[in-house]
Protein 1
Amino acid sequence: VITDCYVTEDNIVIPEKIEGITVTEIGDEAFKQTNCKSIDMPDSIVKIGNGAFEGAFELTNISFSSSLTEIGERAFYDIDTLTSVNLPDSLISIGNEAFYDCDALTNIKFPNSMEQVGDKAFFSCNAVVTAYISKGITRIGTDAFSSLNSLQSFDVDSSNTAYIAIDGVLFNKDKTELIVYPKEKRNLEYIVPEAVVKIYPYA
């Protein structure tokens, strides 16, 4: 586990082994408030800890491990320079507030391996235009996609058993709950489907 980072290089390459021991995890707050611009992770990394890159305000590029399964809470909290993330096909869960207030992110596309998106995971990512919900996601946390001021539509894989998008609006699969109506979906009028019995707060 990498627990701290004191280097000042712009581009950081995390080694697969340190003193013969395989690096499998980036620890909590390990790169918090560092001035690195890019991170290259070895494929041995399976977990990014809570707050691992929180406040790394110059970070623009992340090369994720192909074995990564978990991104912890607040891992990339409030990084305005991060324009895109290519999430690996191994990823299963993203923690609460993981990408909170990452204002430069433009699109969100989850791999089919994904199962859970935490509370406020992408809250206030104001440049996001589209969000793709893959087939494996069974839990989207409270306010995970709230306050996305540029969001125009959701796209949900037709094989997803928990969620569905109708005309770009996100619902649960049986269409009884309206979860998120994209802020930039500019309809003069919107008729909520008759089956809906619940509209989420801040939907």
Note: The CA atoms of residues 129 and 151 lie 4 Å apart.
Protein 2
Amino acid sequence: ALQKKMEEALKESKDLEKDLKDIQKKLKTQQPLTWEEKKKLEQLNKRQKDLAQKMEELQKDFKQKNLKEQEFKEEEERIVEKQQQLQKMYEELMTDEMKKLMKQMEEMMKQQNKEEIKKELDKMDLNNKDVEKELDRMLEMYKELEVEKKMEAAMKDLKDLAKKQDELSKETEQKTKSNEELKQKQDELNKEFKDLQKDMKD
């Protein structure tokens, strides 16, 4: 779910970047702001606000996910380090800067100052490019982290299975259980192993 949200935020950031460029081109003329231009700028500002909100939600979701995972399982040190690095990147996603730029843009739109609006759009453009780069980096890092976690869990499960298999071999040698019970246990272990193989492929 978190990966999907990150992909959506990245797509929205790229779409915004494209629309920002279109508006910048159209604002080249010196005439006063037209009604249509004003509407487009308002929409752009609203979408920018939505994106900032999405990023704040991502930040919260990631923090909660980490806390939940730390509560239930001991992670390897390198995985914990990567999670902390990603958390730091989330916290530095410049949503405050985004909000500041949007506020300034609203002010310039009230004053209908085309030159100042163009300046604010340039700043927004640079800000969006940085956010896009960061989101891209974070998405890749998040995917790597999830793969590592999956591998870590699979290794633990394999160790547990090997231990169970070892115990079963001893029971078979010592004939402490009936053949029927032993066969049932072996079937269960085989099923666990197949499930694990399937999980690793997914």
Note: The helical segments are 2-26, 35-72, 77-91, 95-111, 114-174, 179-201.
